[in-house]
Amino acid sequence: MLAILFCIACSSEKKTSVSSQPSFHDTLIIGLLPTLDCLPFYVAREEGIFDSMRLQVRFVFAHSQMDIDEYLAKGYVEIGATDILRTIGMQYKKRNIRYLASSSREWEVYACRKYRISQPWQLGDRMLGSTRHSVPDFISDTLSQLVNQKKRQLLRPQINDVFLRMRMLDDGQLEAAILPVPLTLAMQAKKHTPIYNSSCTKGLAGFAVSTRQTSLTHIRQVVHAYNMAVNSLKKHPNRPLPQRFLRYLRTDSLPVSLLTGKHLSHLYIPDDHTIRQAHTWALRQKVAGNSYTTDTLLYSKTL
User: Fold this and answer.
1) In what order do the strands lie in the sheet with 193-197?
2) How many CB atoms lie within 10 A of CB 174?
3) Alpha carbons 78 and 129: distance in angstroms, whole number
């Protein structure tokens, strides 16, 4: 009997000592794309910002935004890089996804140097690599209007993998392609021609949340960690970037100038004008039907 009581006492003491220590939350899985606005997540982990919040994070990498959307809808990732247009389309299909916040993601249109294209309207009867029902598709619509003024048609093959899109442009299989910053640097280094930037899409791209198993408190902590990492990058722009991020971009260097000015910003809730713009486009392109409203678009109206 004494031996049994001694064992119980030891067991109770052990449990008390373990429970008194702060424990990490369950692991949050974040789906990332090879875009500059995903860099702060890498920095937040490397600098221990997530650890300071008792958050464990794991990254899932993809070359296609559509893959990230599927991961979100199925609950494989809690947070993923996407855009408002894709989120609207997924919600219309009753998928478990809500838009979290907009970022500073930028896209640029590059033309293959061998075709000597220098203006968007010269893309008439030419192939522009893009992704359907997304910000690149939105950009394609804008370019298509310019081409139509010349009574030509813009050909828009869907090539979801951004690295495949780069290779096809470089090999001359595409006359032009829509690519994210900083992958555009590789095209610039190879003397391909920039012909259009995505200033018209501000606020449309960012990150969404899976609504399957996600805590608002944890999500807000992730946003705070992201914003802290942005501040750190702007304060120390000359330090080496995380090697894992550079390997993901398939490069061993990145210009410091990308980290200054407009290229990185805090995450923010898109304004009503941006949401209406996305909704109007989604209805026009039949990404969503007339029954869809944006009432459920945002995960939260505050961060």
Assistant:
1) 128-129, 176-180, 107-111, 193-197
2) 24
3) 29
pTM for this entry: 0.89
DSSP 8-class letter at 25: P
Return mean pLDDT, the chain: 88
pLDDT band at residue 288 using 50, 70 and 90 as cut-offs: very high
Place of tokens 């030509």: 152
The H or E element that residue 208 is part of is strand 205-210
The percent of residues above 90 in pLDDT, for the chain, comes to: 74
- The amino acid at residue 10 is C
- Report the C-alpha gap between 263 and 265 in whole angstroms: 7
Helix (H) / strand (E) element for 7: namely helix 2-19
Helices (H), 36-161: 39-46, 49-52, 65-73, 84-92, 135-148
Residue with tokens 């930028």: 106
Furthest C-alpha separation in the chain: 95
| SS3 of residue 178 by DSSP | strand
Cβ–Cβ under 8 Å, residues 221 and 53? yes
Helix (H) or strand (E) holding 164: helix 162-170
For residue 216, the one-letter residue type is L
The four Cα atoms 176, 138, 90, 100 give a dihedral, to 10 degrees, of 110
Q: Residues 176-189: pLDDT tens digits? A: 999 999 999 899 99
Angle formed by the axes of helices 216-235 and 39-46, nearest 10° = 90
